[in-house]
Amino acid sequence: MHNDDSELKRITERLAQLEINQSFQEESIESLEKTVMQQHQDTQRLERKLSLLTEYLKNMKQQGGIKHTHEETPPPHY
C-alpha cells in the first residue's frame, strides 16, 4: 500500500505541474495573439500612410512640384 500512496502522490504532483504549465502557456498564447493583432493593425496603418504618401508624391510630380535635382534651382547660399 505504501508504494501505491507514493505513486498516487507522484501522479497528483505531476498533474498539478501540467496544469500550471498549461496555464502559463495559455497566458503566453493570449499575449502573443494580442501582439500579433497590434502588429497587424500597425502594418495596415503604415500601408495606408504609404499609399497616401505615394499618391501625394505622384500628384506633386504631375503638378511640377517635384523636379529632378539637375532641374532644381540651387538654394541662395550656393
From TrEMBL:
Keywords: Coiled coil
InterPro entries: SlyX
Keyword DNA repair part of the UniProt annotation: no
Coiled coil found in the keyword field: yes
Pfam families given in the database record: SlyX
TM annotation in the entry: none
Stretches assigned to coiled coil: 1-63
UniProt-listed PANTHER family: PROTEIN SLYX
Name of the protein: Protein SlyX homolog
Organism in which the protein naturally occurs: hydrothermal vent metagenome
